[in-house]
Amino acid sequence: RRVLLLGEGNFSFAAALCGAQGTHVVATCYESEEEAAGRGGAARSIRRLRDSGAEVVFSVDCTKLKEHFSPGKREFDRIYFNFPHCGRKAGVVKNRQLLACFFHSCAEVLAQEGEVHVALCNGQGGTPADQPRREWHNSWQIVAVAAGAGFILSQVHPFKAETIEGYKCTGYRSQDKSFCVEGALNHIFTRSTAPLCFTPVSCKTQLGSQEVSFQVPQVLVDKINRGFLEVNSSHPVRTIKEKLSAGLSQAFALQNISSCLPLLHQGHPDGVCPSNIFWITLSPGEAPSTEKTSQGLANAVLFSHSGQDTDRNVQEGCPVPQQFYLRPSLLPHAQAIIKKRAFSPGILQVLSGPVFRKCRITPHSLPVFHEMLLVLVVSRGTESSCIQMLVDNIKTTLNSLQQGISGIKPSISLQEATSFGTELNDFAAFERQLGEIQHFLCVGTDPDPSGSCVGVIRTAPDGLKSSELVVVSASLNLDLLAMLLCGISDWRMLWTWDRRFLRQFPEGELRLFKSFSLYPPSYVHDVSFWVPDGEEFDEVAFHSLARRVSGEMVVSIQLRDNFQQPGTGRRSLCYRVTFQSCDRALGCREAAEMQLHLREEIQQHLGVTLR
């Protein structure tokens, strides 16, 4: 591998590396050869480097690396820069500028899988790894500076100068006064994945008896048809689904019916707030005729406000409302199966697939996730024992999974819906909109044993003509389960395109996740506006707009002020928007551009007046 060392003072660090097998060292410094050779011990180190076959290059500017190396000699696997400094009494701003230019220069000569190692004195980096930690404005802000050039901090560990044979730290530009290396840290940066280009995407799905196509909402473009549940996938959500299925098969006869469930529903979901729905317009010429739609109702999933209007319209030959939306739940598919009596009592039906719900922005609020729906038709009077069997089986499987994941000890509990607190997560709150719930399934992890709702259990006749039969259904959020079991703090990581995520789960093995992007920088912007008179501001629409504009780079939106102007009664809202990525580089300039775009969009689409 090719290793580039920059800013060498006396070349003692390079000399310590030059003997490593399989490593070709290119050692450089900013000074000329005459200036460098006059430093104490430098001449001896330079001779040792040349004798070992290493290259020694002088007068190298770390901000213009492309100029010093021909195209065939770039592609360095590692670049080291120990204790960079502008010199003299340069302040933090100038040193940030030096690092910014250095990282941009590295991007031009580093191999795709290469690393950039930067050693800084204690406190300079401005990350939580510094002890004590400086105030942000008084640090070099190395992670944010590197992000501007497309790098993420992947590791940070102590710089142990005493373990490097013959190494002696010098001051800036080899001055006699050396840097203080006590508590120094080595920061290891890697390339980030490139920003996603959200080009329009069309998707085909079955709607009744007809195949239709539609344009995918921009915020879901990178999440549609990802195939996480397919046979060849090693994604944690599939592993958990397969493990749960295997466990349930020990107690129930299973039938998997998830293969051809349509993505689109028609009509309007009863009881669900329209703001929580991804409404869809079919591609031009794709809208099915009333006749075809009516003929296909036996296989389609339809809703209406009353629950009976659609059926009556079809019976009377009236037009069916042409409203379409991405499925927010698999429950209607199960209800359609029950209504057609396409089931066998005692057989556990397993449905699974992605579902889509507009929601507010939080680390555990998922606009798309993989649902696993279990449906069982049982004799009336046995539903309680069946529910207990289901829950016990799920508990056993999850406890078995966690044994191989160090440090995570989930506690699984079944809570009565009537005794469950009012503070529901978005998953549980939306499930309540879909219908009455008997039990919540919660998984708690230390140090949060109170738990997060990952599933709901319902019992209902659901269209059964026989009064002797009852339907038991359990809906599980596989994404939340993966986050809780594997220690994933941000749902967006489950959808990353960075291959380093799936590498941590070889052949579907569940492990405790280790982030490859440490201490990602965050950028805070405020936006305030007047809301239209007499109108209620739709916060979910605002959050959804922020998701779309930023490409899921907004991690938090908080209401800071709600002001009503005396006399006129006009209302003004002020929100604090925090931009942060969990898996790729996000620089301050890119975040500022997102904020400007967000201001334009909310004024155009939400009808507000910016302040």
UniProtKB/TrEMBL annotation:
One of its GO terms (molecular function) is rRNA (uridine-N3-)-methyltransferase activity. SMART domains: FDX-ACB (SM00896). One of its GO terms (cellular component) is mitochondrial matrix. It comes from the Eukaryota. It catalyses: tRNA(Phe) + L-phenylalanine + ATP = L-phenylalanyl-tRNA(Phe) + AMP + diphosphate + H(+). Residues 518-611 form the FDX-ACB domain. Pfam families: BMT5-like, FDX-ACB. This is phenylalanine--tRNA ligase. Coiled coil: none annotated. Its EC number is 6.1.1.20. InterPro entries: aa-tRNA-synth_II/BPL/LPL (IPR045864), BMT5-like (IPR019446), Fdx_antiC-bd (IPR005121), Fdx_antiC-bd_sf (IPR036690), SAM-dependent_MTases_sf (IPR029063). The gene is Fdxacb1. The keyword Ribosomal protein does not apply. It is found in: Mitochondrion matrix. Gene3D superfamilies: Bira Bifunctional Protein, Domain 2, Ferrodoxin-fold anticodon-binding domain, Vaccinia Virus protein VP39. SUPFAM superfamilies: Anticodon-binding domain of PheRS (SSF54991), Class II aaRS and biotin synthetases (SSF55681). Belongs to the class-II aminoacyl-tRNA synthetase family. GO terms for biological process: rRNA base methylation; translation. PANTHER family: FERREDOXIN-FOLD ANTICODON-BINDING DOMAIN-CONTAINING PROTEIN 1, PHENYLALANYL-TRNA SYNTHETASE. Keywords: Aminoacyl-tRNA synthetase, ATP-binding, Ligase, Mitochondrion, Nucleotide-binding, Protein biosynthesis, Transit peptide.
